[in-house]
Amino acid sequence: QVQLVESGGGLVQAGGSLRLSCTASGSIFSINAMGWYRQAPGKQREVVAAITSGGSTNYADSVKGRFTISRDNAKNTVYLQMNSLKPEDTAVYSCNADITTFYGTGVLRRDYWGKGTLVTVSS
Questions:
Q1: Do strands 10-13 and 117-122 pair parallel, antiparallel, or not at all (unpaired)?
Q2: Residue 48's pLDDT is what?
Q3: 28-72: per-residue pLDDT in tens?
Q4: 57-59/67-72 β-pairing
Q5: pLDDT band at 122; cut points 50, 70, 90
Q6: Whole-number Å distance between alpha carbons of 10 and 6
């Protein structure tokens, strides 16, 4: 069984910074792409940033230049550094990872999700 556990959310004033972390644990063979999603109240979940196993990154237009995604493969951890935060960044941020696990005599590849961490940006 694989678990993704996020940390680092909280309350911050507009213009401030937060760093989110998400660590995967369990019977992991390999981790492929990892990403951060967010869902604001009354809105659909949207992708914020993603990073491949090789380190290539993609960002939502709304966070380009302010957020940075990175990963530490040795620690099975992905980070999201969020700078110049705005009230509209307020949301529950969830980690997603495409993980291959040991399964019987073979492997199984599927997506996993964390439970999310709340980020609140006050004006």
A1: parallel
A2: 98
A3: 999 999 999 999 999 999 999 999 999 999 999 999 999 999 999
A4: unpaired
A5: very high
A6: 12
Long-range contacts of 45-50 (CB under 8 A, 24+ apart): 45/94, 48/80, 48/93, 49/80
The structure tokens 């644990």 sit at 25
Spell out where the chain has E strands.
Answer: 3-7, 10-13, 18-25, 28-39, 46-51, 57-59, 67-72, 77-82, 91-103, 106-113, 117-122
* Residue indicated by tokens 């993603």: 50
Nearest of 19, 67, 65, 56 to residue 34 by alpha carbon = 56
Please name the residue that has the structure tokens 């940075």: 68
Average per-residue pLDDT for the chain = 97
* Distant-in-sequence, close-in-space partners of 6: CB < 8 Å, separation ≥ 6: 20, 21, 22, 93, 94, 95, 114, 115, 116, 117
